[in-house]
Write a structure and sequence with these properties.
The structure is a single chain. Helices cover 27% and strands 26% of the residues. It is of the alpha/beta class. The C terminus is likely disordered. The chain has a single domain, classed as CobE/GbiG C-terminal domain (Nucleotidyltransferase, domain 5), CATH 3.30.420.180.
Length: 136
């Protein structure tokens, strides 16, 4: 079974039910076993994220905004209040390192986002190339 890392973002208005619904829809498209949720540092106590991790019985991996901002993603957003153009995609890719593949790009709910990465391409696909290292 494919190991999945689910990157999640949630605004203060997000509910556990909203994130659970978005995740169910995503997992119907990308079957596998969720190994962890991943998000922006400080969001691990958000009720929607914490409840989803408890329901799945998986850990929450967190990353600082600077680490998320260093990851190239296919669907960046303008998130000046977070200091990163991506939470869900970047967090999923970081969690699935060292050779991550974006299995499902960012999906949006009213107050949540999620993306799914795998540590290797899903069977029968080529997957997405690993993110490039930032230029120094």
């Amino acid at each position: 079974m494919t190991t999945l890392y689910v990157g999640v973002g949630a605004s203060s208005s997000a509910t556990p039910e909203e994130l659970a619904t978005l995740l169910r829809t995503a997992l119907a498209r990308v079957p596998g076993e969720v190994a962890a949720l991943a998000t922006l540092a400080g969001k691990e106590t958000h009720p929607a994220i914490a409840a989803t991790a408890r329901a799945l019985r998986v850990p929450i991996l967190t990353y600082p905004a600077a680490a998320l901002a260093a990851i190239a993603v296919p669907t960046p957003a303008a998130l000046p209040h977070l200091a990163t153009p991506s939470v869900a995609e970047a967090a999923a890719l970081l969690a699935a390192a060292p050779t991550p593949h974006l299995a499902l790009p960012k999906q949006k709910g009213p107050h949540t986002t999620l993306a799914i990465a795998t540590p290797e391409p899903p069977e029968g696909t080529r997957g997405t190339a690993p993110p490039e290292e930032p230029q120094k």
